[in-house]
Amino acid sequence: MSSEIKGVGPYTAGIIASRASRNPSAVGLNVRNTKLLARRLLHKDNVSQEEVHHHLSEIFPGHQGAAALYLVEHEYLAAPVAPLLDPDHLGLWNHALEDPAA
C-alpha cells in the first residue's frame, strides 16, 4: 500500500500514515532504512524500496509498517548511527540521574 499526501514525500507520508493514523500496513522507507531491511530480510545490499516493501507485504501482510518499524528500531538499538553514551559509563550516567546533587 502506498501512502500519498499532497506536497509530502513518500517517506514522510508513510511515517505519518504509520504513526499518526495508526495504520500498521503503512511503510515509510528512506535510503538507510531500505538498506537495513534489505540486508536483514533479503540478505542483499542493492535492493529498491519497492522490493523491500513487496517482501514486507509478503511476510507481514497487513502489518508490514509495524514490522518494518520494529526491525529498523532493533537495528538502531544494536548499532546506533551515533551512540550518545559510552556503554562503559552507563552506571555513572544512571547514578547522576538518580542523584542529581552528586
In short:
The chain is built from 5 helices and no strands.
Radius of gyration: 17 Å
Distance between the termini: 53 Å
Q: Care to count the β-strands?
A: 0
3D shape:
elongated
Report the uncertain regions.
none
State the helicity in percent bands: 55-70%
Q: Would you tell me the overall average pLDDT?
A: 80
Largest sheet: none
Give the number of helices. Answer: 5
Structural class: mainly alpha
- What's the order of the H and E elements? HHHHH
Written overview of the protein:
The protein is mostly helical and 102 residues long. Helix content is 57%, strand content 0%. The chain contains 5 helices and no strands. Helix 2 packs across helix 3, helix 2 crosses helix 4 and helix 3 packs across helix 4. The mean pLDDT is 80.
Helices and strands, with pairings:
Blueprint: H1 10-20, H2 31-42, H3 49-59, H4 64-78, H5 90-98
Helix pairs in contact: 2-3, 2-4, 3-4
Question: Main traits of this protein?
Answer:
0% strand; 102 residues; single chain; elongated; mainly alpha
